[in-house]
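note to self: the first set is below, dont mix up w the second
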Amino acid sequence: MSRTHTEKEVIKKAIMDFYHEGHAKNNPELYKQILHDEWKFFLFDKDNKLWIVDKEEYLSWYNPKEVNNNLTWKTHFYYIDITENIAAVKIKIECETVGYIDYFNLMKLNGHWWIMHKLSHKIK
């Protein structure tokens, strides 16, 4: 198994364990395991206005006491592209009520892959 293939599996597992599960469990503690402290989220709202959200604000949107266990979250990986200690990932994450295409920039720091930036497009 190549180093790149192994690293792709490590990234995929981290995204599923912490980002996907963060959505599914509405739990900010899971996001803290993958979102770097300098993480930023970029998105356009329905009026095409650009929003830039920092990690602290993003985490405030989630509360595990408000999880909806009736939703089924799915994550599909379009690609994971790695160059040494940086990576780009495109995924689709969705449930019955919302869906997004997310683009991530990641960096491997001290042996751990961190999402540095997220660009998102709402699909439903």
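second set (the one i keep forgetting abt)
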Amino acid sequence: MLAVRSFIFKLGFFTWNVLGALVTLLALPNSQEKAHWAQKVWSGGHLFVMRWLGGLTIDMRNFDKLPEGSYILACKHQSAIETVLFQGFLTRTCMVFKKEIMDVPIFSIYLKKMGMIGLDRDAGPSAMRHLLKLAKKAADQDRPIVIFPEGTRRPVDADAVYQPGIYGLYKSLKKPVVPVAINAGNFLPKDGRLRQTGTVILECLDPIEPGLDRDEFMERMITAIETRTNELLQYDRDGNPPQKLSPSKN
């Protein structure tokens, strides 16, 4: 039965991507506000598919306690789910994608209009300059910036490998970085096959304020993300959902 549900889920996901592209086309000639509206409609459609075809409920934790103004969300990357959710739950989101996503027909036009950032991971220093230039523009507009600091989706049992771009953003923009832990890889891993039904959790952790050196920043961020992600991954293994963590007052 799960194999059948997985097929139906993938078909629904694909179908909505096509329909979402049509919504995007209608929004493109209009204002950026209409494009932001299309962004939320696109995300909302995927939420519907996840819930009713995939049997996945979504638990977004501590998103009501995010910093004011612009900030950087550094999220563990395990599936396509998190790339969808941020665009629906946040306002005027600026996301950092791999360059290949920016080459998808129609969708790429929408991403560019929305000021999303396509990162060529093989371009070396020029990629970092490109990232910082567009990220600064987004920060000046008080937009939240979402980046996956590992650079690609990784299986839940893979070793953590974090790229240096996140520290470049942190140092240059002087904005707080909010680590985000997830358990999405237990449900929809990189191969796109629905592994099981249940509750997908994305949890914002304590912000890391500007001013730390590279070693201290990376250690704090990686420890926060990996520790809490490993706890969340136990959700569907022991049958008891992990308790929410309240952000500290410090």
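remember for set 2: The two ends are 48 Å apart (CA to CA).
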